[in-house]
Amino acid sequence: RLYHLFPNLFLIRIDAMLQVMMLFPTTSKSCRLHVSVFTLRSERETRWTRLLTKVWGTLKVTSIKKILAEDASIYPDLQRGMENSLFHGTISTREELVHALQLFIKKNAGVVPDPKMVSEHMSCKSDA
Asked: 54-75, pLDDT tens digit by residue?
């Protein structure tokens, strides 16, 4: 499961592991990614369970590093695509979807949405 908690905070829950990813903008075209990995431990630890936890944690960290390195290899192409997009400065050509997400987050966070934003969203028509 993926939980997007804040614009720069993601929690990823997989089996006996929790991965926390935080993005920190460094420039307008780059960011720093901080990843923490947490694994479950036995309630009653023994030498065997400690070894198992250590091996499992090492395996998960190794595989996550490999996946993130594979992802990073496509970032330059993504950046070039964003710079050459006909829709410069937009997240999507369907910005009403972004506004709907922002309204959902504000509503569930107990924040009163800006009336102008609500009226703009209500006037958007979707054919999807």
From this structure: 998 899 899 989 998 998 888 8
